[in-house]
Amino acid sequence: xxxxxxxxxxxxxxxxxxxxxxxxxxxxxxxxxxxxxxxxxxxxxxxxxxxxxxxxxxxxxxxxxxxxxxxxxxxxxxxxxxxxxxxxxxxxxxxxxxxxxxxxxxxxxxxxxxxxxxxxxxxxxxxxxxxxxxxxxxxxxxxxxxxxxxxxxxxxxxxxxxxxxxxxxxxxxxxxx
Length: 177
Known about the structure:
Number of strands: 0
Number of domains: 1
């Protein structure tokens, strides 16, 4: 579609749809950081956005099938991690929906990035939880929960960070331009 009249016609729409992924990443990171949950609506928006984007950009059915396979495989891994109580259900679903957009080629890069970001974030969170907070911060419920040593790690922050970095290398992003 590159350079065609159809591509020019859809260009504003493509640009609008390209905001779905980054917007969902940022909202998920903030939401997970402040509530320790990732709403299903974000994962659903990513799945629907993927199909709309793939159709508009002319991604082949074979490539769509590969993305679906990656998303499904990652969902199975996420379900296993959830069953072992290592991640939350929202994290598992969000990981799969993000992997659907990312596809096969940059998947390993994405996993390495979110592991590095997640490790660094976890270390910072552990240090934060050792600090004595001033009264004005303790009054913020989300900060109090984030500071609680019994709380888990909001993995959505790392998943979103890795997704934002890898997104420009994905098939869908490249197909839009």
